[in-house]
Amino acid sequence: MTLPSSMNALILKHDGYGNTRTGAAIETLEPYLEYGALPVPKPGPGQVLIKVRMASINPSDLYFIKGEYGQPRIKGAAAGFEGVGDVVDGKGFYSSYLKGKRVAFVGGVNGSGAWAEYIVVEAAMCVVVKPAMRDEDAAGHVVNPVTAWTMFDIVKGSGSKSFVFTAAFSQLGKLMAGLSRDNGYAMIAVIRKESQAAHLKELGAKHVLVQSDPDFASKLAALMKSEKPRILLDAVANQISADIFTAMPARARWIVYGKLDTEAPALNEPGQLIFMNKKIEGYWLMNWFRQASILSKLKTLRAVQNRFITGAWSTEVVATVRLADVMRDLPEALKIGDGKVMIVP
């Protein structure tokens, strides 16, 4: 296969971090990205070149292009963290094995990103996708599904058969709902809109709390008493999250994996950290990939793919936008909500 020398991509306009914290909302992409041409990246040792089929848009992507994520931007590099595509080149034993295979991937190298026609990725960050798996599921196969699986391992190790999950109508929350139901765990889902509650229960959440409900606090207190959850999986990190953590029983763990709210919470009962042995900690999937054994990774990735293939999980896609149309169409597509938006070349 003869590879082109240049490719189309969505290119970052700034280096480093932004000066503001406005959250994931995007009204226009012009301050952050431009559509243009870049040289097709070349893989180094242990890396592969992937021809992108579909890229997934996660909140982390939106924070990143605005300079509000935990990693600095590189001006002139392609944006996008995750997707699915076909390996067309590679250097090294495992890279050569992957050549010609369809893979899910996460993370580019040397300024390479998924919102482009080609991306260079570490071969170790690629997952061979089974033929029966849809591109729509494979494109978001790593970040949300593997996070759901590994987070659920934390829940199982907590000693409680219940847990609390904020921003629960996200794609990750939907995956966790089915996983909890199928394993006999009670997911206490916290959402913003009453209209989301019925669908989330259909997917497997045992309890759904709506933040705007005047009885939110009393319903939360009752569930803390009856279910006794010890894990709070939190993507919001706001005052409601802090209040939920305060209401939880001894040995509770507040695990923060995102910061959807721009306001900082106040911890009104810091003594609980001392006398109730509560803990606040962070979670980042990349650390799991770096620390987990090869056997653990293989078992997890196989189990995740099987859930999609059997229909236990499904990616709910609300819009698919062509790469050339992203600058114009993506902000409106993101406003549809309640599902994933994908980019295709």
Overall description:
The protein is an alpha/beta fold and 345 residues long. Helix content is 31%, strand content 24%. It has helices at residues 59-65, 93-98, 135-138, 143-156, 171-182, 197-203, 216-227, 239-247, 272-275, 285-291, 294-309, 326-334; strands at residues 6-12, 33-39, 47-56, 82-90, 102-106, 118-122, 126-128, 162-165, 186-191, 207-210, 231-234, 253-256, 279-282, 317-322, 340-344. The strands form three sheets. Strands 3, 4, 5, 6, 7, 14 and 15 form a seven-stranded mixed sheet that branches. Helix 8 links the parallel strand 11 (231-234) and strand 12 (253-256). The longest helix has 16 residues, at 294-309. The model has no long low-confidence stretch (mean pLDDT 93).
Please give a quick description of this structure:
The protein has helices at 59-65, 93-98, 135-138, 143-156, 171-182, 197-203, 216-227, 239-247, 272-275, 285-291, 294-309, 326-334, and strands at residues 6-12, 33-39, 47-56, 82-90, 102-106, 118-122, 126-128, 162-165, 186-191, 207-210, 231-234, 253-256, 279-282, 317-322, 340-344.
